[in-house]
């Protein structure tokens, strides 16, 4: 929802708050499920004045003082809205929510004032601006027409969506826009991603199971001092080619969201790059040629040069084409492998998985593009291909079967994976067996691995969206936060090492694939230690 329609202001739930004797703030959306508030300065029709200038002329008032009364700062508007909302909603209804929907309170500069019961409206307003949760919506009042010299009218170009809405920053608190053609959209309860604050974005990862190599030759990892409790996420960086390999934490989005511009991989890595460059920070380039779901963790490539971003985009595009078009022979390829832990009830799943791995079968499903989350996957080809995408993956390996996990008397694996309620969860769901799979993703579709495995009857541990019970833990870095965990990790990425050449016609460097490859791999996931402990107990 981007622009507030004019007839919304006449809704019965529209609220008015007096900012001064000459100015009222009108807002709607108080009881909307998404808590998105639209606010504006109420038109002056009740005072028989059509504009601020008309009011000044007829009352002979001071232009500066009246302008301040009728055209307030953005921060003032947000504050009066928040103060009025406190009168209408219970405190329990407006506690901040994290990605899992649970309330949380953290001692962190960015997120401390989300506790509405103790923070003032000024602090909350500042914080919403810090997060990028407030937008200024510009409205065209000329009905897309302008007068010509002859007096006729002609249609003019309408503003693009990007021009029509601007994300506000903390520095915009005292900004005074023209309220006759501007509206505020306030995401009152932005979804938070506190896991983004559990790592140090400027440090190398201390992982000892990370492998990086070119044609089989191992590369040394950069060592650095790390803080006592937080770990770094940078696994590898190539300044000349323009890319870095990060270890993405789970429960953190890759890109900014409409309600939260700060807590995501791209923004936080870019912020560190800007601080590193100092006065040249405005020239920092960062983008993500690949992406992972919010709950998925593991290897993620960040481009720091446009040439590399274009190169990887082409590699990924050609990868999908090659698997969907068997006649393609282009030497463009990138391999992405995932490690996941799945559970199943039926013993037939063991034989099915074993046959798939031994035969190197390509598992194919079809995704309904228009379906909402959870996405609809089907094994049978649709009668009409329109609106459906082919999804393909290959299960390259499977571990030994971890069985009898519901026997909580002899082991506590269920509690390790699903938290304190683990034994209760496996008993209710009838979960008995676990197996770890490694998957070669041949086509990159939304929720592809999760959807395909769930369709096969082997959902991923922790995947509440596609049938798996939720997994949780207490994060030691941020204390009381209960963090949802999905047992899905991007464990390996490989691609042809790019070479660059100067193209005179384009007057720029262009990357093309060489004969050597980069390979990056993580050997363990967050659940590996739990499985090892379980196996050790079982073998005693």
- Assembly state of the chains shown: single chain
Share of helix, binned: 10-25%
- What is the assigned CATH homologous superfamily of the largest domain? Pseudouridine synthase
- Termini gap: 59 Å
Helix/strand/pairing category: alpha+beta
Low-confidence runs: 45-53, 55-68, 91-114, 142-158, 219-228, 474-483
Number of helices: 12
Number of domains: 2
CATH architecture tag of the largest domain: 2-Layer Sandwich
Q: Would you state the CATH class of the largest domain?
A: Alpha Beta
As a whole number of angstroms, the C-alpha radius of gyration is 27 Å
Q: Which whole number gives the mean pLDDT?
A: 78
Strand content: 25-35%
Rough outline: globular
Tell me how many strands there are: 23
CATH fold group of the largest domain: Pseudouridine synthase
Largest sheet geometry = 13 strands, mixed
């Amino acid at each position: 929802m981007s622009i507030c329609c004019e007839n919304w202001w006449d809704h019965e739930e529209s609220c008015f708050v007096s900012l001064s004797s000459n100015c009222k703030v009108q807002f709607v959306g108080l009881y909307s499920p998404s808590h998105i508030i639209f606010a504006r300065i109420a038109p002056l029709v009740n005072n028989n004045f059509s504009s601020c200038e008309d009011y000044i002329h007829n009352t002979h008032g001071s232009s500066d003082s009246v302008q301040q009364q009728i055209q307030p700062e953005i921060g003032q508007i947000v504050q009066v809205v928040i103060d009025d909302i406190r009168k209408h909603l219970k405190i329990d209804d407006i506690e901040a929510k994290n990605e899992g929907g649970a309330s949380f309170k953290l001692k962190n500069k960015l997120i401390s004032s989300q506790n509405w019961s103790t923070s003032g409206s000024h602090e909350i307003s500042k914080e919403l601006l810090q997060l990028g949760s407030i937008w200024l919506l510009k409205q065209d009042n000329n009905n897309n027409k302008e007068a010509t010299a002859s007096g006729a009218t002609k249609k003019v170009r309408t503003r693009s969506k990007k021009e029509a809405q601007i994300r506000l920053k903390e520095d915009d608190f005292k900004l005074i826009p023209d309220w006759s053609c501007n509206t505020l959209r306030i995401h009152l309860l932005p979804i938070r991603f506190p896991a983004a604050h559990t790592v140090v974005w400027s440090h190398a990862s201390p992982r000892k199971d990370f492998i990086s190599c070119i044609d089989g030759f191992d590369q040394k990892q950069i060592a650095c001092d790390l803080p006592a409790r937080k770990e770094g996420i940078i696994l590898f960086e190539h300044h000349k080619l323009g890319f870095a390999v990060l270890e993405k934490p789970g429960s953190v989005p890759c890109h900014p969201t409409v309600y939260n511009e700060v807590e995501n991989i791209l923004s936080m890595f870019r912020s560190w790059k800007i601080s590193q460059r100092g006065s040249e920070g405005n020239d920092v380039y960062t983008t993500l040629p690949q992406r992972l779901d919010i709950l998925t963790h593991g290897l993620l490539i960040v481009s720091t040069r446009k040439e590399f971003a274009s190169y990887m985009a082409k590699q990924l595009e050609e990868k999908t084409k090659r698997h969907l078009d068997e006649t393609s022979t282009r030497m463009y390829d990138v391999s992405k492998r995932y490690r996941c832990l799945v559970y199943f009830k039926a013993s037939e799943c063991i034989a099915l998985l074993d046959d798939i791995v031994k035969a190197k079968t390509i598992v194919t499903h079809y995704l309904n593009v228009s379906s909402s989350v959870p996405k609809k996957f089907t094994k049978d080809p649709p009668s009409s291909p329109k609106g459906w995408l082919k999804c393909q993956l290959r299960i390259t390996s499977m571990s030994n079967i971890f069985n009898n996990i519901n026997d909580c008397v002899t082991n506590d694996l269920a509690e390790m994976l699903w938290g304190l309620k683990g034994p209760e969860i496996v008993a209710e769901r009838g979960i008995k067996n676990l197996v770890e799979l490694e998957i070669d993703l041949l086509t990159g579709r939304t929720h592809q691995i999760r959807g395909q495995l769930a369709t096969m009857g082997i959902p991923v541990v922790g995947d509440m969206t596609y049938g798996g019970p939720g997994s949780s833990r207490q994060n030691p870095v941020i204390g009381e936060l209960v963090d949802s965990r999905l047992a899905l990790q991007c464990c390996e990425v490989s691609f042809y090492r790019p070479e660059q050449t100067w193209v005179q016609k384009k007057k720029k460097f262009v990357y093309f694939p060489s004969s050597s490859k980069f390979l990056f791999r993580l050997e363990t996931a967050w659940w590996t230690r739990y499985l090892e402990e379980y196996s050790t107990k079982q073998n005693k």
